[in-house]
Amino acid sequence: MTFSSFNLHDDVLTGINSMGYNSPTPVQEQAIPLILDQKDMIACAQTGTGKTAAYLLPLIDKISHGNFEHTSTLILVPTRELAKQIDEQVEGFGYFASVSSIAIYGGNKGDDWDQQKRALTTGADIIIATPGRLLSHLAMGYVKLDQLNHLVLDEADKMLDMGFMDDLLKIINQLPKQRQTLLFSATMPRKIRDLAQQILQDPAEINLAVAKPAEGIDQRIYLTYDNQKLPLLEHLLRELDVQSMIIFTSRKSNVNQIVRSLLKMGFTAEGISSDMTQDEREKALQGFKNKQYQIVVATDILSRGIDIDSLSHVVNFDMPQDAEDYVHRVGRTARASSTGMAITFVNEKDMYRVQKVERLIEREVPKLPLPEDFGPGPAYDPGKRHDGGSSRHRGGNRPGSGGSDKGHRSKHHRGGSKPAGPRLDEGNNRPIKAANHTPRPRPEGGDKAAVSGEGSGDKRRKSNNRNRNRGGGASGQGPKEENQPAS
Ligand code: AMP
After folding, report:
1. What is the CA(481)–ligand 1 centre distance, in A?
2. Same domain, 139 and 87
3. pTM for the whole thing?
4. Which residues form ligand 1's pocket by a CB distance below 6 Å?
5. More exposed terminus of the chain, fewer Cβ within 10 Å: N or C?
6. Would you say residue 429 lies in a domain?
7. Index of the ligand 1 atom closest to the CA of residue 305
8. Could you tell me if residue 260 is inside a domain?
9. Using one digit for the tens of pLDDT, what is the confidence trace for 37-57?
């Protein structure tokens, strides 16, 4: 199938062409005709499937040929990163089709409230917003959504997880009843279905099976004690052909420690966490996209919605809390059918989560042996809960799991007890020998890699967009946008 089989206008097709998309992804194949046909829709689709373009393309087509003189489209998203990401995609397509957009989000230290207010007062075709911040603006009375035609909820499950349900309903109650509503969610728990029932009318359903990482991702698990993680990370960085890597950690406090250790090892790295201002985060992300750093270390905040192309490796420094988060994190690599590798470090406390992931992705993830000289890692015991509960051993040594003590891991299992070793912040004092290497050149500026990216993301092509009023960041008035479940 090609994009020209849809009933899209030539300017939109040119935009698609300019983005380098040759053929529609499965979610696009299904969603685009339905959206063009004015249907409400509920779609179970994860990040990395092309879901953003699946709704943006038909909406841009309608907007740029619909002569709307008002804000016709509202896209609600959980995080400012996703808001900016979508805004950038609108800009990419909007270069050829005449469409304007504003991103409205909270949580920035600098006060951009007035800038957002001006942009909202002037109006735009599409508003992309985090719920808390939009609600604050709505309360002031200058946002005109009374003629809205299209509402999109993107990553609806994440919005509900972040506690936005009330805000969402308050916003939706202010919208015209006659509208097209599209709901995208990576998972479909009961609460999403309930929400869908409240706000969608006779929706078409798209279900791209269970959220599963793309086929091209080489997924691996290493069973490690915490004190083996940094040495293992270093080993992998030296062994593998790593062009660009994101390391996810569940704990915000780990980010700086991992970055510091990587810099000491001679790699270029930068951290991103909610402790940083919006500007700092953007600079770090931009530096990574510009290949100033080989590695970015992030909390869960980056696992959804951030579009970084050509990412060769994702490392879960710790096992994500939820199986869905695993899928989201792993989805950072092998986007739109390139290949990539996703490596997960699983300590003895997190093993019970492995089976949840494997059930969700309907695939067993190979458990690879620790390298020679690492000493033993923990034995695979997925039945064991970290609360010290009894070991149930539900098929922990399944054939083919690679986690069997009889399998290749046993070779390294020289002793039963956990080896004493460094904590995370003692990575230099590790009990194993480091491979010989030539450190990569580091940027000037001491412990933390220097950041010199443009950062703001506002350096945009001037297009034939109308009213291109940038919302920009905002003051810290959106507390919920700061809410990160895992950091
Ligand atoms: P998303 O799932 O919306 O986060 O998109 C994932 C990535 O796939 C983004 O980098 C998109 O630019 C890219 N993408 C979306 N649709 C296509 C397509 N039809 N062909 C190639 N790449 C695409």
Report:
1. 25
2. yes
3. 0.56
4. 21, 24-25, 28, 47-53, 307, 309, 335-336
5. N
6. no
7. 4
8. yes
9. 999 999 988 777 789 999 999
